[in-house]
Amino acid sequence: MGIFGRRRKSREERAAEIAGKVAGGKGFYGRTTRAFLGGEDFAKVQQSIGAYNSGLNVQQLLAMGAPTVPALVVSISDTGRLVNFDPVVDLVLQLSGTTDSITLQTIVSKLRIPRTGDQVLLLPDPARPGGYLYAGDGVAP
Q: How buried is residue 134: exposed, middle or buried, by Cβ count under 10 Å (0-12/13-18/19+)?
């Protein structure tokens, strides 16, 4: 707690706040980014920030002990984008015990990129009923 009861924000909290404003196109940073990039590139920035935020959500859900669902990688393709030097990929997955396939666009570690036929873990997305979040291969790095 700071002087007079106010707590100062950490660098991480401030950076997350700015990233949220950029993704939403709000505030000075968001409006400036949207003006300089244009519509198509700004949409890519929003997708990248969304992928980063979903990764944070996965870490929090795993720490709280949320149940995971195993899935088999049917195919993987590169989107050509990077977030913190990790690739953003399109995954086609088949849930264990079903013939249904789902498609996810997610960030994967460049050291642990899943291959066709690998088993990965998914988390049910609390923000989107029926949706899933990529939780990795279940092996601690």
A: buried
- 137 three-class SS: coil
**How far apart are alpha carbons 107 and 83 in whole angstroms?**
7
DSSP state of 65: T
DSSP single-letter state for residue 85:
T
Which pairs from 114-118 meet CB under 8 Å and 24+ separation?
114/73, 114/76, 115/73, 115/76, 116/73, 116/74, 116/75, 116/76, 117/72, 117/73, 118/72, 118/73
Tell me the whole-structure pTM to 2 decimals. Answer: 0.66
- Tens digits of residue pLDDT in 61-91: 778 888 888 999 999 999 888 887 888 899 9
